[in-house]
Fold:
Amino acid sequence: MRRAFAVLLALVTGVSLMTVSAPAAQAAGSCSGTITYSGVQSSGLGELVIYYNSSNGGTNSACFYHRGAAYGRSAPTFVQIYRCALPKNEGAHCTPSGARPTDSGDFSYYAGPVAVTGVANYCVEAAGYIGWAGERHWIYSRQQGC
Structure:
């Protein structure tokens, strides 16, 4: 009886830890919806994609995908998205307003999703990189979705 209880307790503890340790950025959005921006790095190793849906006063999500030689290979990967302070200036860099959700780690396929809400009538900007051969290969969307 004690052995069965110990096994059950270990299972419950393990499941609880897995639930608590889920990254918050994963719950904020999804890598799906209407694509408002897609850019592939000049190195061909990564692609930054911004998605939009109309929920929560407008929600933009971003994911950074591994491409080419990096696809399926674990590498440091990062993605970030934020709402711009000024409503319209598509194509320029912006001053962030509010939260800047990020996701980073050693991933094999993509980082994200990260999301911001309440973006109706505002631009967003996203950035991402993949670490490859000792270099960070960055891409910036500049202001999109204005």
